[in-house]
Amino acid sequence: MESLAHQALAAALILVPAALVFGLVSLATKGRGAMTALRQARGESAVNLALVVINSLVLGSLVKFADTSIEAQLGLFPALAAFWLSLSAAATLIAALLILEFTVYWRHRAEHLPLLWPIHATHHSDGAVTWLTLLRKHPLSHVFSKLVDSIPLVLLGFPLWSVLAATLVQTFWGFFIHADLPWTLGPVGKVLISPAAHRLHHIDDEVLKDRNFGGVLAIFDRLFGTFDDASQHLRCETGIAGGSRSLGGELARPLEALARRAKRPAASPAG
Predict the structure, then answer these.
(1) Cα–Cα distance between 34 and 143 in angstroms, integer?
(2) What is the pLDDT of residues 188-206, one digit of tens each?
(3) Within a domain: residue 270?
(4) Which of 17, 73, 197, 224 is deepest in the core (most CB within 10 A)?
(5) Could you tell me if residue 269 is inside a domain?
(6) How many domains, the chain?
(7) Which residues of 156-191 are buried (b: 16+ CB within 10 A; e: fewer)?
(8) Closest to 166 (Cα-Cα) out of 224, 73, 229, 103
(9) pLDDT (tens digit, 9 = 90+) per residue, 111-135?
(10) How far apart are CA 178 and CA 79, in angstroms?
(11) Which spans in the chain are helix H?
């Protein structure tokens, strides 16, 4: 029970400030339309919060165990650990964020491949993308990303504080880019992923959704040819074929994909 209470407190410390900030941003940018937007997203937001409960509380012990195991490995490479300690805190944090972003970029691209898409599709199923959509993750996707994203930082011996700080930066920027804001950020949007650029990633288009995989930085999208500033797609429609589902429907997506694959007839041998 004490562990659950800690997990609930940790979730609240992230969600409550984010809700206040983005609630005020919505009021400032939409005026009376903020309440209309809130009502339109109400059903999907309820599912998102239910997924937060599952991922943060029900799976909290599993993720905490993984985090503890990762922390235990941070001292395996004393030479690398000493190198990061020899740098300034700012340089270490920037390096950690760059490596985390590189990992997230390729993990995210992998989740758009047919094999992993069924666990990632839940994140794209919101028809009304809001800041809370960041946390709309199938439990399998949540665990997968938590484990994969940490591996390079651990192997490279980064100090724990830099891992946590880089993750925190990525989380709060993630809330920002999922917010319903048609902002490209101008010249800054060539370096950082903007809300408009990430909304394009959530577009209900099978081709254009494979753009802008970065979480904070646009540099890897630009380097590997997947960047789009989204200036031609402001206020685009979001979601996936079939739309969003209830909590049970979202949890069932990967199982349904497995069932469909099992029903496919095996390819006949060449003769």
Answers:
(1) 33
(2) 999 999 999 999 999 999 8
(3) no
(4) 197
(5) no
(6) 1
(7) bbbbeebbebbbebbbbbbbbbbbbbebbbeeebee
(8) 103
(9) 999 999 999 999 999 999 999 999 9
(10) 39
(11) 2-30, 33-40, 42-52, 60-73, 78-86, 89-111, 117-124, 139-155, 160-178, 195-201, 219-223, 247-263
Instruction: Let me know if residue 17 belongs to a domain.
Output: yes
Distance CA 216, CA 176 (A): 10
Q: What are phi and psi of 217, to 5 degrees?
A: -95, 140
* Cα–Cα distance for residue pair 202/129, rounded to 1 Å: 8
Which of 227, 224, 18, 233 shows the shortest CA–CA distance to 134?
Answer: 18
Q: Please, are residues 100 and 153 in contact by the beta-carbon 8 Å criterion? A: yes
Contacts of 42 (CB under 8 A, 6+ apart): none
CA dihedral 15, 19, 20, 25 (to 10 degrees): 140
Residue 267 domain flag? no
Q: What is the pLDDT of residues 146-156, one digit of tens each?
A: 889 988 888 88
How far is residue 20 from each of residues 13, 25, 35, 38, 179, measured CA to CA in Å?
12, 9, 14, 13, 13
User: Mind giving me the DSSP string for 109-145?
Assistant: HHHTSTTTHHHHHHHH--SS--GGGGG---HHHHHHH
Kindly state the tokens that stand for 103: 């990992």
**Segments forming the whole domain that contains residue 46:** 2-262
